[in-house]
Amino acid sequence: MENVEIARVLSELADLLEIRGANPFRVRAYRNAVRTVRGLTRSLSTMVQEGEDLTDLPGIGKDMAGHIQELSTTGSLELLEEVCREVPRSLATLVKLEGVGPKKASKLWKELDVTNLDDLEAALQAGRVQELEGFGAKSAAKILRSIREVRQRQGRFLRYEAEQYLRPLLEYLRSTSGVERIEVAGSYRRGKETVGDADLLAQVDGGEEEQAAVIRHFTSFPGVDRVVMSGGTRASIMLGSGFGVDLRVLPARSYGAALHYFTGSKEHNVEIRKLALRKGLRVSEYGVFRVSEEGREGGEAAEGGPEAGERLGGEAEEEVFAAVDLPWIPPVLREARGEIEAAREGTLPRLVTREDIRGDLHMHSTWSDGKNSILEMAEACRDLGYEYMAITDHSEAVRVANGLTPERVRAQWKEIEEVREAVAGIHVLRGLEVDILRDGTLDLPDEVLEGLDIVLVAVHSSMGLEQAEMTRRVIRAIRHPAVDVLVHPTGRLLNRREPYAIDMDAVLESAAEAGVAVEMNANPHRLDLNDVHLLRARELGLRVSIATDSHRPAHLDFMEGGLLQAQRGWVEKERTLNALSLESLQEWLARPRNGR
Predict the structure, then answer these.
(1) Which of 215, 280, 595, 596 is the most exposed place for a label (fewest CB within 10 A)?
(2) Is the pLDDT score of 151 beyond 80?
(3) Are residues 432 and 469 in the same domain?
């Protein structure tokens, strides 16, 4: 069982315990454990197998360590099953809805006998929920909208979660005799933020017996919940997490063509096939062939089968692109958004990479809701080879995150100075994530803002405003002369909370006019901005800060997923704020604009 699954089970248990009315300190212990598990970079199952003491981890006591060991070895938790005999397990789904927490879920269950989404939707439509104390018409409308959003995204997994499900499966398959190469294709390879399932392609150069052996090995993976189908060269399984995986076994001669075909997107593939047809070729998952006009259109039904005609390539993806006179196009760009034209004209972007990143400009410490000290965050950033970092704790308005008052901001500066002296090789910038208040003003006086090296601004409250009001609010904030970066600009939480209503095009245009950068928040639950907004930011010439919003050192690894999202938005090194050298960044931060 992977960390993401362990965290999911412990979180579900915490919700059900709270619904049952368990001691708040006990519930909090589970939630603290979930935060620890989500922040780990090592596999808990591996730690259990190697006999490591899990109680050395923060927030993990003896009982919690026992739960983790039980989950890692059996895949289930007896305590959860015990609680579910008293509390319907489906209530945990209601807790994820906007406007419904454990206390409201408990009220819905006990007073209206609501236990699942269907029950709740029916009760809302009948007007019964609105009559309950603590709900009301506005709350009911919000919950109903959230139910519909949940239904729309059912079956979608965060790419970050899918990666954890796939990692042990890929290791298992790579150790299989006969497998020369294995890759994940589909939307996962294109870097999409959520995926429905995964397509694996394995190169097996042996005959039918070797191919069948690989299929058998795949369907025997210990994490399989059920085998959906199994054939000679293809099989489908469902993992215990509910994540579906398909495997196709291919010979070397077709591997590159199949990788291109199954990577997609569908629209990109259609454009490639059109180019091939104009050259008298047929491109398919089997290869590139020169065939008659009838054969080009016939595919597998053509005379001679799917590999009829003169084979021109297919072993490598590059051969597919070369056949239509194009250079190889990175998978993240294959969305039919102009990448084929750019490839033809030699103007494909030089996408930003991990090697280009010089620092991280959004992270938190124990001064607000971070889990580590400024010193510990600085040492972690230094160890990553960064040239600089910014400590950007929350401002006062975000009370739930222990936001900083002006007095605490000034006190923090003293500690930052001490850390600058203590940690050589990295420069610590004095920053803050300043709340954008409802009227668009900022949550700190100008004299405090002027003492900061970098000012981030964000919306954390009143997210239900109408689009026009929210847009005016954000635009007013980014026009403030102290502002440098607008962070997590749409406020979305993937598979949990939709973006607030805002005209992002107007916001991005205003940011360009004001000389303000926008953030690509790399937290895997946010990945905010999305790829389309990043493309628009590129068109407008905006600088983009790819930042992790880290609350502990382990979160700094979110940079990889953030880079993938930025690449999908065609972001290049030249427009990446944290790809600047320290000297260039400081020059940019001191830029004259808006009266400053």
Answers:
(1) 595
(2) no
(3) yes
